[in-house]
């Protein structure tokens, strides 16, 4: 069940039993759309269990309007709306340092559209950098299943110049400025290996 | 509109127009119950605007079961449930360091009940300490409006011993092991002042 909601992100109920979504527009994108998030969740779980890092995805922000509260033991939300996030989706701690990132994917083959990032997320990354945190994005090209880590400073630079130049980042620029993340099995997307080599240089 | 949901936490819809909650058990606690969270949100906003720290409250975790999706521009959540959080409520970055905390209050006058903390939150704090992050709790005694910062290591110690000793932390222990936070106006709960003096010693 995939729901496309106003800010362009997808929502997927990940716990059965999920009732029908009342949507005919489900599965507009392939399952790969969900896989980056799922892969990262599994990866973060691996890091947690092996005491390598404590990084979680933040809950989807929801504006709750109506709650039915028949008994103390049960509260049912009857009306709520998806809200735009004010931060990135993932954060946590790795070797004492603050880690913050957003993960996005595209079906494009040669560039990554900047519209995948919202103003709030961009400002958040700027603030994190200002506090000395480690901020980056994980970008996936779904067609070729290639994943890159790109430091947020580069993203901000492209984002700020998009009106003057182009509204996407060339894949060649990502290849040059970013770092390829190999897809494995355990953990699936071992981004901390890249983080360690890039941000924890001796 | 205050909803008390299963894990003992309160939910408050903070954006009008909020429809009636269908609850006769609202306002079981005084408004002070909400004020600690509100005060912290205002404080964090102050820190953000003054570029002192980037700390946010995580969204309330919600298990979404049914979404009505009549048009691409509108998705209405028709059935959802409050989920127990797997982490603490607040985290972020301050001077490059990872900051993680939970905020709780009690109407008790002489001790702080440990049942305010859930196993998941306790384990999360343990993991954060293991990664070298800064973890603490902000405790408020609502009757006297006193606020303390207590390092998570102390909380964990009391929590782990509660079956053998007592199921609450004496206020006198909090006074001795913790740090009083003065309530001000701008920012209201200046906990970073304490964080800086405790965790950033020269």
TrEMBL record, chains A, B:
Query: InterPro entries this protein is in?
Result: Resolv_RecU, Restrct_endonuc-II-like, tRNA_endonuc-like_dom_sf
Q: What is the organism of origin for this protein? A: Halalkalibacter oceani
How does the cofactor bind to this protein, according to its record?
A: Binds 1 Mg(2+) ion per subunit.
For this protein, what is the EC number? 3.1.21.10
Keywords of this protein's UniProt record, alphabetized? Cytoplasm, DNA damage, DNA recombination, DNA repair, Endonuclease, Hydrolase, Magnesium, Metal-binding, Nuclease
Please list the cofactors this protein needs.
Mg(2+)
Name used for this protein in its record: Holliday junction resolvase RecU
**Entry annotated with the keyword DNA repair:** yes
One annotated GO molecular function is:
crossover junction DNA endonuclease activity
Binding positions for Mg(2+) per the UniProt entry: 87, 89, 102, 121
Q: Which family does it belong to?
A: Belongs to the RecU family.
């Amino acid at each position: 069940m995939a729901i496309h909601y106003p800010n362009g992100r997808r929502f997927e109920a990940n716990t059965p039993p999920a009732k029908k979504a009342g949507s005919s527009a489900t599965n507009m994108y392939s399952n790969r759309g969900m896989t980056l998030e799922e892969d990262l969740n599994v990866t973060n779980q691996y890091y947690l269990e092996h005491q390598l890092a404590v990084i979680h995805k933040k809950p989807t922000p929801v504006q709750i309007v109506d709650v039915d509260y028949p008994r103390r033991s049960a509260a049912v939300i009857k009306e709520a709306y998806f809200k735009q996030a004010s931060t990135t989706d993932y954060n946590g701690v790795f070797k004492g340092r603050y880690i913050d990132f957003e993960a996005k994917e595209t079906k494009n083959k040669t560039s990554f559209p900047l519209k995948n990032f919202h103003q709030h997320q961009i400002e958040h990354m700027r603030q994190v950098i200002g506090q000395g945190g480690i901020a980056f994005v994980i970008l996936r090209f779904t067609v070729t299943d290639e994943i890159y880590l790109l430091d947020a400073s580069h993203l901000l630079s492209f984002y700020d110049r998009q009106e003057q130049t182009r509204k996407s980042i060339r894949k060649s620029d990502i290849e040059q400025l970013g770092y390829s993340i190999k897809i494995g099995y355990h953990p699936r997307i071992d981004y901390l290996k890249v983080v360690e080599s890039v941000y924890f240089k001796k």
